[in-house]
């Protein structure tokens, strides 16, 4: 049973003027978009509208404060000057390949920064291991560009990543346990998800414990189950790592069960 | 004018559909605070209410992202461990007093951090001056505690300041041109402004080019002009630096003129 709620406005006789009874018949004008609307499309009262505006102002001020803090804490200068004698660096990183290609130029950095950003560098540099004594950290299986972008991120918390670079840095951030960067790479890769790369992304996410990316890829895949078995990557995965395929079917089934349960509860 | 608000609840036997003409007679219930209101107190339409909610969610997400960035960029670890051999520091700061008191313990730090936070340290350390060669920076006229808080702020962009410490750090941040800290100190001092400290704060702000604090103190003072001349600090300032008192009167006059102009335009 629905109920209508009808209100009757009565003016005091003593009133001077202004709000007559005709107020109630007036369609309202939204303070925000200035359009007229009817009671059934009503949102907030004036007081809540004003409060919401204040909240928004406060949030924006907080954002400005935080942006200023980020800009204060970034070590841009150091990156720009890294490599010249005035940057006080005490370690270099070198991208090394096993294939014996010519060594890439060393990338200078500060032990204090590496140590504060990565527990792996911390263990390496604080425990007087080879890298700490020599002041040289060799990073294998990574390109010079990827390593430079990685180091730059450690100083600035910023990077502009294409899909390939996001994959490379996700691998590095997993290896060196730089959680903040890993999460950023995952978010970049989630925005690049399509049906065409969903299976590869899913397998990649699995391999590198990238939960955000895994969930997004799985959701993309389970929404296209009819096309799944026709894909080439599907066949490859069945051969190479069938457990991953099993997990897809499990996720699909659990989604179906949940949907059915949801349907029941709202009907 | 007072209005009586009488509500009648009617059950509706027939229709399930909402928007009949009778809608217009219905008092609305605010989606946000759940209170009933009348058309003259209407705020937004439903669509704008929902949009505002989304905006708020987005702003909150942005705040979370920025907080994570700040926490990534802070160099807490370094501060905690500064002083032990594993923190890779390459410079110490010493609070020195001209009065020949016993020297305070040195505070270890990183040239790279000092240089990136302060143009004064940058010039000092990059130009092979005495401080750079010796690895020791003497800071005069400052307590050990203030210097330690100052250095800590350079690493973390955070400090918990009482009024005295905010004054001390404002002076240091002015001297070493650490704008972010100076602005923070000013904001702390603005929150501590009262009529009792307004004149001292005003003179202090003047001395250290603290515009935010100056404006706030001036506004406090010009709102209490009747009591101004009776204050002890007033007499002292008239003796010591009468220009400051002149500026107060000028600000008061300009405020009066503006108020009058505002009054005229709205009358």
From TrEMBL, chains A, B:
Pathway, according to UniProt? Answer: Protein modification; protein ubiquitination
List the SMART domains: BTB
Domain BTB: from-to ranges: 89-163
Which positions are tagged coiled coil? 49-76
Q: Sorted alphabetically, which Gene3D superfamilies does this protein's record hold?
A: 1.25.40.420, Potassium Channel Kv1.1, Chain A (3.30.710.10)
Per UniProt, which keywords does this protein have?
Coiled coil
Q: Which GO terms describe its biological process?
A: protein ubiquitination
Where in the sequence is the signal peptide annotated? none
Region called Disordered, residue ranges: 1-22
Coiled coil as UniProt keyword:
yes
Please give the PROSITE patterns that the UniProt record associates with this protein: BTB
Stored PANTHER family: SPECKLE-TYPE POZ PROTEIN (PTHR24413)
Q: What is this protein called?
A: BTB domain-containing protein
Give the species this sequence originates from: Arabis nemorensis
């Amino acid at each position: 049973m629905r109920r209508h709620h009808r209100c009757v406005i009565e003016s005091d006789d003593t009133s001077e003027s202004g709000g007559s009874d005709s107020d109630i018949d007036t369609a309202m004008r939204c303070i925000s978009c200035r359009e007229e609307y009817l009671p059934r499309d009503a949102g907030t009262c004036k007081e809540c509208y004003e409060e919401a505006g204040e909240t928004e102002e406060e949030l924006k001020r907080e954002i400005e404060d935080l942006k200023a803090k980020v800009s204060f804490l970034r070590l841009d200068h150091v990156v720009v000057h890294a490599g010249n004698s005035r940057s006080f660096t005490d370690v270099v990183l070198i991208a090394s390949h096993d294939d014996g290609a010519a060594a890439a130029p060393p990338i200078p950095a500060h032990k204090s920064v590496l140590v504060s950003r990565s527990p792996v560098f911390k263990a390496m540099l604080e425990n007087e291991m080879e890298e700490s004594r020599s002041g040289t950290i060799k990073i294998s299986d990574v390109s010079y560009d990827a390593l430079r972008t990685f180091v730059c991120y450690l100083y600035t918390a910023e990077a502009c990543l294409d899909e390939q670079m996001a994959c490379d840095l996700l691998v590095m951030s997993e290896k060196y346990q730089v959680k903040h960067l890993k999460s950023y790479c995952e978010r970049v890769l989630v925005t690049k998800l399509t049906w065409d790369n969903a299976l590869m992304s899913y397998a990649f996410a699995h391999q590198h414990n990238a939960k955000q990316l895994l969930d997004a890829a799985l959701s993309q895949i389970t929404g296209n189950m009819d096309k799944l078995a026709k894909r080439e990557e599907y066949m490859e995965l069945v051969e190479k790592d069938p457990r991953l395929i099993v997990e897809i079917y499990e996720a699909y089934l659990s989604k179906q069960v949940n949907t059915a349960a949801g349907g029941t509860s709202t009907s």
